[in-house]
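Entry:
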Amino acid sequence: MAESADVEQLLTAFKKFAVHGDTKATGKELNGKNWAKLCKDCKIIDGKNVTSTDVDIVFSKVKQKTSRVITYEEFQRALEDLAPKRFKGQSKEEAVQSIFKLVEGREPTNVGVTKVAKTAAVDRLTDTSRYTGSHKERFDESGRGKGREGREEIVENTGYVGAYKNAGTYDTKMKAEK
C-alpha cells in the first residue's frame, strides 16, 4: 500500500475526523456524518465524478450490516472504492495513492460556524451600565460581574437589618452619650 509515514498521517486524519463534533467518540470508529465531512473537507467530493450520494453509498457498502460506523480498515476500503471514480485517468494503484494523499494529515475545518452577533440590540442588552434594580447589584463599576456575591444573599450576623445604612454606629453613639 503506502509507506509507514503516510499510513500514520492517514490514521491521524481518520482519528481527527472520528472525534469531530462528538465528545464521547474514542477515535476508533467514524460515523456517516463525519465520513461525509471528511470527503467534503479533503476534496474527495468534486461534484462531477464523486458526489455526496456516491460517498453515502460507499459508506453503506463497507460498513457491517448492523453497524452505524466504520473502522479504520473499512475506511481504507472505502477510500480504495472511491479512488478509481475520483481519479479516472489513473491506474487503480495510482488512484489509491492519490486519494490517500488528499486525506493525509488533514483535519476538520470549521467554515461557516456561527459567529457572534454584533447588532445594536445585543449591545444594548449586554450594556451593564444601563441595568437597573437588583440586576445592577450583580456588577461592579467597571461592568465586570461580581460572581457569587452578586447573586446570593450573603448572611451577615451583625444584628442589623440587611442594607441598613448606619450599621456599626451603635457603639460610637453610646460612647458619645456617656
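The mean pLDDT is 83.
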